[in-house]
Specification:
Elements lengths: L2 H9 L6 H10 L18 H8 L6 H7 L6 H13 L1
Helix pairs in contact: 1-3
């Protein structure tokens, strides 16, 4: 896989730039496969290893679970106010 392919795979689950993907590759010590060439080819499981490191190893399934709605501050304040009245 090239860095562009890895970026597309990771970005499908978590927004990540090419620069961030390169940082993940360096942090996880994932090195290019084979001879020095352009574009560099990384192991086929590089994207999965990055997602696993981020705790998103479920792929698209993890994104669906993580996409629960986060309430706004106004909604939180309103709920607190209602709870205080009881």
């Amino acid at each position: 896989m090239t860095i562009e392919q890895i970026t597309q795979t990771v970005a499908a689950v978590k927004p990540a730039s090419r620069r961030q993907v390169v940082r993940y590759l360096n942090a996880l010590e994932i090195s290019p496969v084979g001879a020095r060439q352009r574009p560099q080819n990384y192991p086929d499981d590089a994207a999965n290893r990055i997602l696993k490191h981020l705790g998103l190893n479920g792929g698209a399934q993890a994104k669906r679970q993580a996409s629960t709605r986060i309430p706004s501050m106004a909604e939180l304040r309103a709920e607190r106010k209602k709870a205080g009245r009881k």
